[in-house]
Each structure stands twice: as structure tokens, then as C-alpha cells.
Amino acid sequence: MTGSSQGYSGSDNYIAAKPLMEIVNVAVALQKPLIIKGEPGTGKTLLAHSVMKALNKKLLIWNIKSTTKAKDGLYIYDTVQRLNDARFKDKDISDIRQYIKMGKLGQAFKSDEQLILLIDEIDKADVEFPNDLLNELDEMTFHIHELDEEVKAKHRPIVIITSNSEKELPDAFLRRCIFYYIEFPDAEMMERIVRVHYPDIENKMIKEALKRFYWIREMDGLRKKPSTSELIDWIKALMLGGINTDKIANEIPFLGTLLKTEQDTDRFARFSNAQGGLGSKRRY
Amino acid sequence: MFIDFFYLMRAKGVPVSITEWMTFIEALYNGYFQSSLNHLYYIGRAFLVKSEAYYDHYDLAFQEFFHGIKTEGLELDKVLDWLENPINKLPKLTPDEMAEFQKQIEEFRKTHDMDELMKQFRERLNEQNERHDGGKKWVGTGGTSPFGAYGKHPGGIRVGGESWMQSAAKVASERKFKNYRNDIILDVRQTKVALKKLRELKREGAQDELDIDETIDKTAKEGGEIELVFSRSRENSTRLILLMDTGGSMLPYVELCEKLFSAASQMEHFKEFRYYFFHNCVYQDIYEDVANYKRIPTEKLFSNFHKGYKVIFVGDARMAYSELFDINGNIDYFYTNDKPGLEWLIRVKEHFPHSVWLNPTHKNYWGHYTVETISRVFPMFELTIDGLKDAIKALKSRPKKLIQN
Fold this sequence. Notes:
The structure holds two protein chains of two kinds. Chain A is of the alpha/beta class. Chain A has helices at 18-30, 44-55, 70-74, 79-88, 104-110, 129-139, 171-175, 187-197, 203-218, 228-240, 245-250, 255-258, 262-274, and strands at 34-38, 59-63, 75-77, 100-102, 116-120, 141-144, 149-152, 158-163, 178-182. Chain B is built from 17 helices and eleven strands. Chain B has helices at 3-11, 18-29, 37-48, 55-65, 67-70, 76-83, 95-111, 114-127, 168-174, 188-196, 212-221, 254-266, 298-304, 321-325, 341-351, 369-377, 385-396; strands spanning 140-141, 148-149, 201-210, 230-236, 239-245, 272-278, 285-287, 295-297, 310-314, 355-359, 380-382.
């Protein structure tokens, strides 16, 4: 049984919900890829870093872009380089091996120790991308056609995948994974998170700031709700600016750190006017 | 039977597959759930539910299946209360005892099955109505009954004990994920995800992308003299026109339409995005603004945009009979129309075969005569995420021939 005493149980700079910790442990034990989904800024990527620290294993990050192809993660055969070398005849080009470069997944397979592989923002890639990785993640092997060689994982890496749900992931892919949706933290949890970043923040300051923060998040019709990272920035700005706590209660200094578009700022102005001053009424 | 949980989940709309269920059962027998309902809830969810949109369905199924633990029979708070402050805490075990304990767990697994245990658990709880410590049968603390906290019965069901964030049953009954259901809300982000499906990649524009394969091919043919070949890059060629009803009966849905609109306008993936407004029905003019002030002739739609454009109507399709079927039947007193609204709608459909109608009202209210008529011209869908997805599927598929009645 996986007690939370062994295995993953959060780390100094990352607060994980208890169920999430358990699920990380089960995913590691059952060797299943773990998909983490959630609003931007709920700490999906940070989770991998935290697991790295807690389990004391190396972390490989594969950042996915819209142009990334599944094959890039396995290996790249640098044909252009070889072509160039062939042209100037200053190198022995008969050995193809020197032109085969391992991608992130390939590196994780070839490593002598077990690694953590973070496939970050998988939804950025093309819709077919996850399906192209199915077999590789299942069997943990792939084939290099140019060398006619099989690459098999020495140690199955711990695979953590994050998604911002920009695209939906294919069912066949999801079936093989363990899924966890990180909810937006509630005020209590958020307070702990803020304290991790600023251990000596004043009590009153944090309470007021969080009150404001959730009040803004509750507003309807925001294009981009402020998230954890924006809150952290805002609190930093408040602390650096030496803002008096009472001032936060009446106005919102450095609003720009929380709301990033003009429409949202307008919306905010209209909303707070309609409420007759800041937060004098709580809407439910 | 525990398999009933599987069928119950499917009945509640969670798309659980056999593969997922089997992995879940495997994990169950490997003891990852620490025999606690909370583990079962959270870890089961991670194994069986692969989208937050179904978390609520899962909550409902979980609630219903662990029936006794839901409302009747067992109130978890009451049980937790019995188990709080156990009189005799768990005795320290020596390694030998631990080994024995492990062995017992194995045996217990062989002789008992989970379903039976669950059933007994519910029954016991129904029978029991007072606090119980020590002893062999009842739910309590420190005893050797399979049920309770701090006890030593191997493989038993644990109630409470070490605190989790919240009890599973409570989390399930709170239905925190109700708002994530696909069939209820429409938020900007989800809408964007859905609209993204509309994109069509085509090679268009300047030849500025290096075509490696072609380059190698050409170079090899030239005998090693490097020859670079460029091709056009792939681009989205979707063109979308949004036509929105601004009629009074649409007022309750303004916010919903705003969300759809802001999602569509934020999409950078459309080659072109146009939007116009109409009042209840389309006649010879449509409007560029919500207030129906800037008028442009509907004919312009036909002359300016080719039939590859996709058209989405948003409206409740509910109006007076005359507004759809009569000449001069429109709602505006100072406006005349020499062709009935329906004829204009059919013209739009004929020019833009890829067109659909999104209706913000619930399907149950589509019995109205004008709604029915319009839904025969345009495929009609509810303005929800699921509806939008279906609409987009319809937009992408080959349009059906218009049936004239």
C-alpha cells in the first residue's frame, strides 16, 4: 500500500491537495501516464517539478508547440547536416548513427536511471499528436527505421502530461492514462500557497488581498479571470509598493497585474460602480 | 455486485470503457484504495473519468451506488462521531505480527469479495445505532470487525480515521463539478475549443516553407548540388458568418450569446469572421449593429460572400406566425417586406449550404410552429457545448438537400 509517508507528499514550495498526492503515487506505482488538467495558473507544470524534488529523480521537460510532431520526441534524423557533410567530404558520412539525435522521449528511454518526463501543454499540438504517441507510451519502445534498431526503455519513466484543454484529447489516449483535474484553489488553500511564496507576509494583508482577489474572480464576463500566478505577482507588487492594508479595502492598486485586457478593466470599472463602491455588497 | 457501479456510471452518462474499468479493478485488488471510501472516490475518479465535464455525472453515480452512505441508513457524520477519539488506539505491532497481519489480508481477500463487504457494511450500519469500541462485529474503533477506524481487521473497510480533505460522500453530494457539465453551460474558453473544430487546414499563400523531402529528392537528382524547394504553409481557411437575433424574446439569453460571440471573435484561426444582427427574422435587410440602425441589404451577403462561408444563426426562432409567413408581416411597424421571412431564410440556406441554427432555448420548447418550420430549413441545435459540437459537425459534413414543403 502506498502510504503518504513514503512516496510523493508535496514539497516545500508546492502545496498539493491530498487526493492529488495519492493519485501521483498510484500513477507512479501502476506506471501509468498521469494527465493533469486545470485552469491556467493552477500549478500543473509546477507539480512535475515538485514530484522531481520529492522523489529525487531527474526531470526531462518536453515543451509542446503547435508544430511539434510525435516523432520529434523519439528521434530526429538530421538529413540536412548529413547532406551538407557529404557535400564537403570532410567527414565520414557512412555512419548514420551520428546524425540520429534522440528526442526527449528517446532520452528518457535511454537513460540509466528512472526519469520523470513532463510533456507540457500537450493540447498545443495537433489533434492527432497524442494518438501518435500511444504505442510508445504503452510499450515504452520505438523503432529507428534508419538503423533498424529497437529502442526500449531501460526504466519506464514517470510520465506527467499537462493540458490547458485548448483541444480535446482523443479517447483512446485518455483511456490509457490517469486523469486529474486541478480545481481552482479555495481561499484557505490559496492562503497556504501564498505563504509558501511569502512566508513573512502580514496576516491582515493576505486576508484583504485574498478577499479582493476572489471578489474580482466572481465577476461575470471577464475574458481572463486572474489566476494564482497573477495573485502572487499582485501581492508582490503590493509588498514592494509598501501599500497600506487599509488601502486595499477601498481601492485596488496595481490592477494591471490582475486584469490584463482593456475590456476586463472596463468591465471591472462598471461592475464596481454598479455595486456602489468596492465590495460593499457581496453578490451571491 | 460491484460491476453494477460500472453500469450505473454508464447509465449516468460517464463514458467509462472496459479498459478503464479493468485497470481500476486491478488497482482495487492491489490495495491502492486503502479500503477507504475516500480513496475509492478520488482514485476511482482518476481512473474512470477522463474529463472534468463528467465529474458531476460521476458524483451522481457514486452517490447512488454507495446508497447507504448517501442519505438514508448512514449519516457519515454520525459514524465519524462514533469513531472520533477511540478509547483504545491501534496497538503497536511487532514485525512478526505485521507479517501475520499481511497474511491475514491475503486470506481475507481470497475469502471475501468487495461487493459482499460493501453490502455487509451497509447492513451493519443500519443495524447499529450507537457508539461501539472493541468487539468483533460492529462498526467502531480499535476492534477486529472489518469496519471502522484504527481497528486491526485486515482488508476491512475503513471509515474516517486519518482526515482527508473532506469525506468522499460529502464531496460527491456537494456536486462541486456541476458547473463543468457539458450540457449546461457555455463558457468562452470551452466555446473556443469547440469552434476550433471548425478549422480546415489548406495550403495557401506564399511559398515560404522549406519542403525538406522535396529538397532532398531534388538535391539527390541534381547529384548533390543543393536545391531548395519551398511550398505553401498550411493555413486555416474557415470563413464564418454569425447572424444573431436581437429580438425582445432573446433578452434572457443575451449573456449566452455574448459568450459565443466573444469566443468566436477571439478565434485567431478563422480566415474571416463576420457578424450581423436581425430582429426575429431575416428580411431584405440585416444590420451591422445590435440597435438595428446600420442597415445593409441581405443581397450583399450573397454577392460578397461565396458559398464556402459557414453561417451560424443564433436565435430562439420564436415569432408570430405572420412574421415568418406573411408579406409585410414583420414586427416593425415602419418596415415593409415584400417577401415573407421564410423565403429569405430559404434563400440564405440555398446560397450558404453550410449553415446551422443555434437555439438558446431548451429543446422541450421547440414545439412552437415557427421554430418547427425554421428547423426544417436549418439544422437546429441547442446553444450548449454539446449542441455547439453537434452543430459544428453538421457544418463540416455535406449539407442535406433542402426539403421544400
